Amino acid sequence: MVNKNKLIISLTTIPTRINEIEPVLESLLNQTIKADMIYINIPKKYSRFSECAKVPDFITNKYNDRVKIFYLEKDYGPATKFIGSLLNPDISDKDIILITDDDIEKTKLWTTKLLNCYAHTKVCCFEERKIGKEIIWGYLGFCFRKDLFDLTDMLMFFNQIKTNCYLVDDHWLTGYCHYKKIKIDNIHLDKSTEINKKLIIGDDSLARLTGADTRRHTSNKCRKDILDNFQTEFPFWCCLGCCKKGKRIVEKFSDNRITTCNNITYILHFIALFIVLFIILIILLKRLLPNQKYSRIFKISIIIVSSFFIFKKINKDSTNKNNEQFFNIVPKAIVPKVIIPKVIIQTYYIKERIPEKVYKNIKEFAPEYTHIVFDDSECIRFFKKYFNRNIIDTFNNLKGAHKADLFRYCYLYKFGGIYLDIKTELIIPLKDVFTDNYTYSVLSIIKNTVYQGVIATPPNNPLFLKLIKFMINLVEEDSHISPYIIFTIDYYNRTKEYCEKELSIGINTNKENDFDFYFFKEICTKNKKDCKDGLDRYKLCCYIYDGDRKVFKSRYSDFPW
């Protein structure tokens, strides 16, 4: 561990537990290697509970200097403890983060053992059963450095699989690491290296909330979603709850095979076939060797050898049957779904100037979406991570809104999602606007141009790669770009080339690939009565229409800020 790096412990809790976590906090504060800060990550509003978590006095008074609350706008389920640590601006990229659950006291050597395993390119995690490596066991704890994970990329991953993975954070975090080829180091635990001191609240929160059978199926559905969307297979365990008293039972997932603890059926089959085989062998031996004496050892040897092959066959059949019943195995040759991620991106050079009404507007009309705003410095960090120096030079040579043009093209090409100009106002639920997986944009009031204030697309759309190349070439030739609308003209012309016809409102079929286009229409008037909050800076009232339906207001009347 490098001295300059802070050591952070991160956990989350729920309203029904927050008053019971004092023993857990005490165990974390009494570690041999002490953390610089412990963060309890709490959503401002829970998806699973109607009430909010009221912070008890013992946290604010007793632990005020070493335990802090970090509030999140959204509830990410059990993964709130992990995503919260990535969102927290007080945790730097080089800090080492230790993740733990809120219902298990730790022994004093918990941080020591994790840090002994830690390497900055890895995720380090305990595992207590030798059932396969590179698995995250959240309740045992794991550690990593913050800059190992890209928040935007991870939220995109989570949003595509959260329906079935919301409550099984161990599984989707393991899946994400395998998808991104992030190595997970597992420390094997035995009785001499125990790190969980005492269970405070319950052995399995998810099993308690949903039932063990539901947990098993949820885990399998989560893994299937990751297979479907990201072509990623990975080993993981599942808490079946098929033994009494909440004992954790392991499912072993390897090479698309599942072995469960409930083997009663195939054991009974084995016994029945064993008896039948025994009778058949005795009859055959008596008929084949009627006048000879054969030893008991000979008979037993034949029975054992035959039984081995029968047992092996039945075990294989049982495993395959479990696969069909619980897992719905997906072939390895999967074509990933081309979908628009539920992520809204916006840009503004000084985020502090953005009015609160912008955030409230998106929260009101797009609560299902992740909302990310980038300033210029964050745009450059994005380029450094995913693009070459040429892109950064181009960005630095652009001015004003053209910087936002380049960033939206690059982000949408890499990740897909929804770009909205910071001045765009939502007026109906966003989920009712982008109902399919087209490349959405707007035909502008200026003829043969595209209004780029609203764009939605799946990732890896070749259109945006062409738009990026055009910007780079243009800047290399002339840094003083004129006219201002040159990029909106290029957007229109590139799209027209794909469709091999003039563009029209609604669906436009792409003749070259599967990324069909859908265009809304911008309509502007000079009538003050059409805008409840007045005309904009251009003395216009502009709305974006889908047919006869208003779906966006082009600009807030008081923009720019």
UniProtKB/TrEMBL annotation:
Assigned keywords, A-Z: Membrane, Transferase, Transmembrane, Transmembrane helix
GO biological process, one term: mannosyl-inositol phosphorylceramide biosynthetic process
GO molecular function, one term: mannosyltransferase activity
Stored InterPro entries: Glycosyltransferase_domain, GlycoTrfase_DXD_sugar-bd_CS, Nucleotide-diphossugar_trans
Organism classification: unclassified sequences, metagenomes, organismal metagenomes
Any one Gene Ontology cellular component term annotated for this protein: membrane
SUPFAM superfamilies assigned: Nucleotide-diphospho-sugar transferases
Protein name, UniProt field: Uncharacterized protein
Entry's transmembrane regions: 266-285, 297-314
Gene3D superfamilies documented for this protein: 3.90.550.20
